[in-house]
Amino acid sequence: MRPCATQERRPGDGLPLPVLAWRHPRVRGGAGLCMGRTDLRSDPRVAKRVARRIQAAARRQGLPRVVVTSPLRRCADVGRWLARWGWTHRIDPLLAEVNFGRWDGHPWSAVPRSDWKAWERDFLHHHIGGGESMAQVLARCAAWQPDGAAVVVTHGGWLSAHRWLQRLDRLPGIEPTMASWPAPPPRGSGPHRLDALPAAAASFQR
Questions:
Q1: What backbone phi and psi angles, to 5 degrees, belong to 42?
Q2: pTM of the model
Q3: What is the C-alpha to C-alpha distance for residues 16 and 98, in angstroms, rounded to an integer?
C-alpha cells in the first residue's frame, strides 16, 4: 500500500493518526450551477457549524489542531473559523475542485449535449469544458500529502477521486467511467476517512 500521507504517530499508542476529510458546506447562490473553480462563499453561520463539528471530532480522537483546505472560499472559510480558535490553517491547491473550464459558473442544464457525450466517450482523458481531465484530478489527489495534518476540508470531486483511487487494489487495470465514478458525499458532511492509497495510485502521477 502507498500511504496517502506521511503521518505522525499518536502519542502513547504508536498508531498512525487518521486523516479525516469534510466536504465544504452548501454555497450561497450555487443551486443548479457547475461550481468547479467558481469561488462562491458559504453562509458564515453554516461554515462555523462545520468548523465546530471538526473541532469536536478532532478533540474526541486526539488529533493535532491543524487543518488543510482548498484555496476556494467555500472550504477556506471553514479553516478560517478554526484559525480563530487557535488552529493552524494551511491552504493547498492540490485540494481544489475540478476545473471545469468554460462550464464553471454556468447551469448544468446549459452544458451542450455534445460536450457531455465527448466527456462520456473518454471520461478519463477528456478535458472537461477545456479545463482539467479526470486523469489530472486523480494525479492531484494521488500526489497530495497532509504533512502532519489530520483534518482536510475539500470538495466533492476531490473526495470522489480519492474514493476511486482507494478501489485500485480491487480493480487493477480498470479505468473509471462516468457510470462507475463514485458519487460525492453530501455538502458539509464528514468525517470521511482518507485511508492509505494502493501502490497503483502512483501511476496517475506520471
A1: -85, 160
A2: 0.90
A3: 29
Could you give phi then psi for residue 205, rounded to 5 degrees?
Answer: -85, -5
CB 159 within 8 A of CB 190: no
The amino acid that residue 182 corresponds to is P
If phi over 0 gives left and psi between -120 and 50 gives alpha, with beta otherwise, what is residue 32? left
Assigned CATH for 20-197: 3.40.50.1240
> From residue 82, how far is each of 16, 51, 66, 93, 201 by CA, in Å?
23, 6, 9, 19, 31
Instruction: Compute the residue count for the chain.
Output: 206
With beta carbons less than 8 A apart as the criterion, state whether 166 and 198 touch: yes
**Domain locations in the chain as residue ranges:** 20-197
Tens-binned pLDDT, residue by residue, of the chain (206 aa): 444 544 554 544 445 678 999 999 999 888 999 999 999 999 999 999 999 999 999 999 999 999 999 999 999 999 999 999 999 999 999 999 999 999 999 999 999 999 999 999 999 999 999 999 999 999 999 999 998 899 999 999 999 999 999 988 777 678 899 999 999 999 999 999 998 888 888 877 65
